[in-house]
Amino acid sequence: MHLKSLTLRGFKSFASATHLQLEPGITCVVGPNGSGKSNVVDALAWVMGEQGAKSLRGGKMEDVIFAGTSGRAPLGRAEVVLTIDNSDGALPIDYAEVTISRTMFRNGGSEYAINGSSCRLLDVQELLSDSGIGREMHVIVGQGQLDSVLQASPEDRRGFIEEAAGVLKHRKRKEKALRKLDATEGNLTRLQDLLAEIR
Ligand code: ATP
């Protein structure tokens, strides 16, 4: 599995459609300070479902939409499309190439699609988490974050390993199932009370 391409439209400083073709192996992005190198990494995190404005170095989520410059008006939407080569089947989907897209409008609405079909954020997260790219995004290590990984507590470190191994998804599902069981047990108790009152 490798990232094949990334297309940005109206995302941060990339007002015009910008297509980046990526080859297997190491890719380096070089450019002067403030030219948008980190914005490319932010776009990658964002299209994979990142939900924290802070993780994207903004104050609020809509800060990812091109805010305008002296010569160009602000835009109303941001879109990022990521194409992943899945010829080794690392992603649990029956396609040799997987395209994930995310669009956000200034009114706050967000849309996701996998291979052109609309989907939920959860679908994107679940698709990626099987390949070790989890919702916590530890595959992206930002400037200055390396120290916090090295100094993490044993529990947090276990979390990183669990996420990379794809265990986190099952833990979350288990938590969700336990919450549903709890709610059902509550409903049953209430039902028994009602039945006792009727008798
Ligand atoms: P450095 O080498 O200093 O880390 P960089 O190449 O990583 O810089 P970025 O941080 O990616 O640069 O880009 C910063 C630029 O992106 C700034 O000029 C900022 O004004 C611009 N920018 C960020 N968000 C938006 C937005 N929503 N609309 C327009 N421009 C934006």
Task: Quickly list its features.
about 200 residues, alpha+beta, Rossmann fold, 6-stranded antiparallel β-sheet, binds adenosine-5'-triphosphate, Chromosome partition protein Smc
Protein model, in words:
This protein is of the alpha+beta class and about 200 residues long. The chain has one domain (about 1-140): Rossmann fold (3-Layer(aba) Sandwich). The protein contains five helices and six strands, in the order E-E-H-E-E-E-E-H-H-H-H. It has helices spanning about 35-45, 120-130, 145-150, 155-165, 165-199; strands spanning about 1-10, 20, 75-85, 95-105, 110-115, 115-120. Strands 2-1-3-4-5-6 form a six-stranded antiparallel β-sheet. The longest helix has about 30 residues, at about 165-199. The radius of gyration is 21 Å and the shape is globular. The N and C termini lie far apart (about 65 Å). The model has no long low-confidence stretch (mean pLDDT about 90). Adenosine-5'-triphosphate binds near residues 31, 36, 37, 39 and 63. Adenosine-5'-triphosphate binds near residues 35, 37 and 63. It is found in: Cytoplasm. Required for chromosome condensation and partitioning. Homodimer. This is Chromosome partition protein Smc. Belongs to the SMC family.
